[in-house]
Amino acid sequence: MTSERSAADLPASAVPPLRLVVKIGTSSITTPDGYVDLGAVTKLASEIAEVRAAGHEVIAVTSGAITAGVQRLGVERPTEPELLQAMSAVGQIDLMASYRELFGAAGMVVGQVLLAPHDFRDRDQYLHARATFSHLLKLGVVPVVNENDAVADDAIRYGDNDRIAALVANLVRADLLILLTDMPGVLTADPNRDPDASLISEILEMSPSLQEAAGSASAVGSGGMASKLAAAKMASWSGIRTVIASARRPHVVVDAAAARAGVGTTVPPRDARVSARKLWIGFAVAARGTVTVDDGARKALFAGGKSLLTAGVVHVDGEFTAGDAIDIAGPGGDTFAKGLAVLGAEILRTAAGRRSDELPEGVLPLVVHRDDLVVLG
Length: 377
Description:
34% of the residues lie in helices and 19% in strands. The protein is an alpha/beta fold. Strand 3, helix 4 (123-138) and strand 4 form a beta-alpha-beta unit. Helix 2 (65-73) packs across helix 3.
């Protein structure tokens, strides 16, 4: 491969028009001394311009607002979530100014879209966001998405926009999610500990050992490879192919769109898709507790179309209220499902194992409704 090759070598007819979501992480657009790397943003703009010239639609998801805020204020990067959110409010302006200037130099107009994971829970908000993206793409604009860090309750911890990118890919019904990072892809081990770690070209199953081998988070970003894998799993469940690759690789966006071999790590789509709401429940909201169920309840939930009832609950861990997300574990302690609780932990402890006719008046036997339950096993 030579650096002189461009999209001109890839006629639009060679690859059917695709809708791409391209996410670039903090570590990929940050210099070693902690500043936003304008050269990296320029490279991204150039490659997005190439694939757009080949007939593809592109939505960019960017990290780096906190880094830009730290740079603007001239302070050390804090660790407190509230201060990080304040930094992002300052840095967001500078970051988007860089995108406007550098993408503009490549002949593109950008539009900023701020999202938070809870935006995908409400159906009306979800449809409104989809319509906004549709109009921006029709106008020839490149939407640039960032998590609404400054006001989101769970900001900073969602994985450095990786999960946001996967949720956006589901939202816009993308064909491909490209997660650009400072690594060549997913490796067999943490390269900081094992110099013999090698690239995994394709992932067919997200095993616990693979998650462990993903290694530690970057020193600059908050997501690390583990969150890339989580985002890829989300995209797979949405029927979307994912490529995890190095942002520094020449023509990485073009080659990923063309499904060329050797471009990072590919995670193929699943045949079955889940709704955006269930994707949000399963992967984008933190569980506040764990409910252990008996084997009968486990089998009923695996069979599909069943709600979790109090009669099947044998143990309750954690303190949660109605509406919170909870993990659902089998008799052996393995988490196989997740859902939104109808009953709080305190009430559920008194109702666990009881049928509807054994419950106190006014207490429903419903623990998690089937519409709010995702089987992950």
